[in-house]
């Protein structure tokens, strides 16, 4: 587009400047940002992130200037190029797996390799045998094969046991026959499947001797490794544009009696003897869903991080943005008030700020619990196996087995954490006012790309049933005196002990009592649901709303408990100064009391708190905490250490240059400003957009366009040295694209390049012919309407 005039470049926002305002904000607080960041992430992790970020910033392929302007095909192409370069950088710099994961996070958009690097490799690693690691995992780690995890189907998502894809054991040739018997058996939404993957871990119903055993994982080749074309009897492709996540090639897959060898069934936990056709079952049926448990555990950690990005953007912007004068300001005081000073903004943003820390510490606890469970699970399998079969679920003690507790906790926290993050991002966007709707705010892309998390790996509402089922089972065990020793049974037992004498929690004065009140509420709702189910004989369906509330209460208790434990772990908090620890405790209380106030009816009906306490929490405690945390808000978001390059946001810039950056993106980076519109109704529809440098002839004349910019065609027909056939052809391609997405075809040049004939062809076959003669574009023939 034309260069920005100097007089425009000289303009500045009206004062005070954003840089000054954010500097003043940071000066208000004594919070040690680096110390807090080290406490949250460790110095090693921060150094790794900075090292990798410096490498990525220097790579042209990762330039983000055009991210918000590209269409889907261009975004997919750019994402694939970035994914390839990321793999090359991994080799060049000898990056570890963790380095690669960090680099992916810093790029901050999905690449077509995303599901290969996460779920495909994790599934092979967790559920494959040593022999299968040699066969599949090693080539996958070297990107010699590219994979995905194909579980969800067109007709089934959350109900894994209802999957329709079948894998029938054929003892005659020791193979499995993978088949999609119905249209609804089509694998759907599978990341990296659409155009990228050569292999898929397909979750299919194992059929043995005519009997359906249940879903099991099978490694299925789907594309030829040389041509990358689909293999015979495999129908695979991309599912099309989505609300967000459009740099990922989510795909569909249908299989027509595709045979795979015996060793393509991942057999660490269950297998079929190829000689006897005898089936060995898993130690626990849930073991084959271990990949999903791992994913859900990470979703909890990621929910805090993605919400923190939105809160960072909104907090910085609301500290820079000024609207209206304070009605109670001293007479004559000039200037408008910072938006962040308004309590209606604080009550929306600051509890979300507190939630980012709460979810972070909870996610960290979940990952530790997952790792502990993996060690325990391996020990149980080895201890109980008799050499001929693995132990069944009845041989494992469900009261003490960490798997049941981890599964229920991961379901509850996945549902709750992703809901808080998804809804919180929208709150952040709206807090940014009109500019929050601009792509340049950055929040929209984070929101759109994060939203699938609320439904994938278990729909958030469906998952709450699994949580409630576990809690009701635990309550029955407690009532029978057969409960194991874990946190769930402990709080249920304590509730029964004190139920008749009542609770007296000092939620306004004691952090420990605040945690206990959340535990009391969960226990009350659990036994209420159990009474409705077992005594009143209410149907499962009639209790689903109660189960959703119960699961939410359980998740909120776990978040409050984990946040509190993290702040009272002397081994880690001793690294923080007293003021920082005190501020974190205020964030804990803000999250807990704000949640209590929002869920007031359940706390009151359980007798955990009184009406007076609820009233004081809302009118006094929460408002006081907002006032105390407000001066530290900008430094608190700084502690997340999000680089501007990662946020890619005009509104969330660290230096506060909000308006300068927003105008530059709109004026200078926007490719739409490089074309001229043909708005006149009497002109051809095909000439709506003109190329850069083209000037339209007099209004109403036939389409005749003079090229006036770049390297092309002075009046004497001389050519600048850098004017090449390739350069001209790129301009012609752009013109065809502008005419409805057509493709350049049949280009013929004369020896002096003064005469060029070419055609623009649409997908449906219609073409339009053009001449380029002495610097003039002219439409000379038309076959149908162009696109």
From TrEMBL:
Is the keyword Lipid metabolism assigned to this protein?
Answer: yes
Where, per UniProt, does this protein localize? Peroxisome
Taxonomy, superkingdom: Eukaryota
Give the molecular function GO annotations.
acyl-CoA oxidase activity; FAD binding; fatty acid binding
User: One Pfam family name from the record?
Assistant: ACOX_C_alpha1
Its UniProt entry gives the catalysed reaction(s) as: a 2,3-saturated acyl-CoA + O2 = a (2E)-enoyl-CoA + H2O2
Read off the InterPro entries from this record. Answer: ACOX_C_alpha1, Acyl-CoA_ox_N, Acyl-CoA_Oxase/DH_mid-dom, Acyl-CoA_Oxase/DH_mid-dom_sf, Acyl-CoA_oxidase, Acyl-CoA_oxidase_C, AcylCo_DH-like_C, AcylCoA_DH/ox_N_sf
Which residue range or ranges hold the Acyl-coenzyme A oxidase N-terminal domain? Answer: 32-146
What is the name of this protein? Acyl-coenzyme A oxidase
């Amino acid at each position: 587009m034309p260069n920005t005039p100097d007089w425009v470049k000289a303009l500045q926002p009206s004062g005070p400047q954003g840089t000054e305002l954010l500097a003043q904000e940071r000066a208000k607080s004594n919070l040690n940002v680096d110390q807090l960041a080290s406490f949250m992430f460790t110095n090693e992790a921060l150094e790794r992130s900075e090292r990798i970020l410096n490498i990525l910033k220097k790579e042209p392929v990762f330039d983000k200037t055009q991210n918000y302007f590209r269409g889907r095909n261009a975004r997919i192409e750019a994402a694939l190029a970035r994914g390839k370069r990321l793999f090359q950088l991994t080799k060049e710099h000898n990056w570890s797996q963790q380095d690669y994961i960090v680099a992916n996070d810093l790029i901050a958009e999905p690449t077509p390799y995303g599901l290969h690097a996460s779920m495909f490799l994790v599934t092979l690693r967790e559920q494959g045998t040593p022999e299968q690691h040699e066969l599949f995992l090693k080539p996958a780690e070297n990107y010699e094969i590219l994979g995905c995890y194909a579980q969800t189907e067109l007709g089934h998502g959350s109900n894994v046991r209802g999957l329709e894809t079948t894998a029938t054991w054929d003892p005659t040739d020791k193979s499995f026959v993978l088949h999609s018997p119905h249209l609804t058996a089509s694998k759907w939404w599978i990341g990296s499947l659409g155009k990228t993957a050569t292999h898929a871990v397909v979750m299919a119903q194992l059929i043995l001797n005519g009997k359906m055993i249940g879903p099991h994982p099978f490694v299925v080749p789907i594309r030829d490794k040389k041509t990358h074309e689909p293999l015979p009897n495999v129908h695979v492709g991309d599912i099309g544009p989505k609300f967000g996540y459009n740099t990922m090639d989510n795909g569909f897959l249908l299989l027509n009696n595709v045979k795979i060898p015996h060793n393509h069934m991942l057999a660490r936990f269950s297998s079929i003897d190829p000689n006897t056709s005898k089936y060995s079952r898993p130690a626990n049926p849930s073991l084959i869903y271990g990949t999903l448990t791992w994913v859900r555990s990470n979703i909890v950690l990621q929910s805090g991080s993605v919400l923190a990005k939105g809160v960072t953007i909104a907090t910085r912007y609301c500290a820079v943005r000024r609207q209206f004068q304070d009605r109670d300001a001293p007479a004559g005081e000039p200037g408008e008030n910072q938006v962040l000073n308004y309590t209606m903004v604080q009550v929306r943003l600051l509890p979300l700020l507190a939630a980012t820390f709460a979810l972070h510490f909870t996610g960290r606890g979940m990952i530790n619990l997952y790792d502990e469970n993996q060690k325990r699970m391996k020990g149980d399998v080895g201890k109980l196996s008799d050499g001929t079969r693995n132990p069944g679920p009845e041989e494992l003690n469900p009261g003490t087995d960490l798997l049941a507790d981890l599964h229920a906790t991961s379901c509850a926290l996945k549902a709750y954490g992703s809901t808080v993050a998804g809804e919180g991002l929208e709150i952040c966007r709206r807090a940014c006012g009109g500019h929050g709707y601009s792509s340049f705010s950055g929040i929209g892309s984070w929101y759109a790309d994060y939203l699938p998390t609320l439904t994938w790996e278990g729909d958030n509402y469906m998952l709450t049933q699994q949580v409630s089922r576990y809690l009701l089972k635990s309550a029955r065990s407690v009532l029978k005196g057969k409960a194991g020793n874990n946190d769930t049974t402990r709080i249920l037992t304590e509730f029964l002990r004190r139920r008749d004498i009542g609770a007296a929690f000092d939620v306004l004065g004691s952090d420990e009592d605040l945690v206990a009140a959340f535990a009391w509420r969960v226990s009350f709702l659990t036994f209420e649901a159990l009474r409705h189910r077992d005594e009143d004989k209410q149907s499962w369906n009639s209790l689903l709303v109660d189960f959703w509330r119960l699961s939410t209460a359980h998740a909120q208790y776990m978040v409050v408990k984990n946040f509190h434990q993290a702040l009272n772990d002397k081994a880690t908090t001793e690294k923080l100064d007293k003021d920082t620890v005190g501020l974190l405790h205020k964030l804990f209380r803000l999250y807990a009391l704000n949640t209590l106030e929002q869920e007031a009816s359940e706390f009151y009906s359980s007798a955990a708190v009184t009406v007076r306490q609820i009233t004081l929490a809302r009118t006094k405690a929460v408002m006081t905490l907002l006032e105390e945390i407000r001066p530290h808000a900008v430094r608190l978001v700084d502690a997340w250490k999000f680089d501007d390059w990662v946020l890619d946001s005009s509104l969330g810039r660290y230096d506060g240059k909000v308006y300068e950056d927003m105008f530059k993106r709109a004026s200078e980076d926007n490719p739409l400003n490089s074309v001229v519109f043909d708005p006149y109704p009497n002109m051809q529809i095909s000439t709506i957009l003109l190329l850069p440098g083209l000037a339209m002839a007099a209004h109403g004349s036939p389409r005749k366009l003079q090229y006036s910019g770049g390297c092309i065609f002075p009046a004497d027909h001389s050519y600048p040295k850098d004017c090449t056939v390739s350069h001209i052809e790129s301009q012609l391609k752009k013109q065809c694209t502008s005419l409805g997405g057509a493709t350049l075809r049949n280009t013929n040049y004369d020896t002096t390049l003064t005469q060029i004939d070419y055609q623009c062809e649409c997908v449906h076959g219609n073409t339009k012919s053009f001449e380029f003669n002495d610097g003039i574009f002219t439409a000379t023939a038309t076959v149908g309407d162009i696109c």
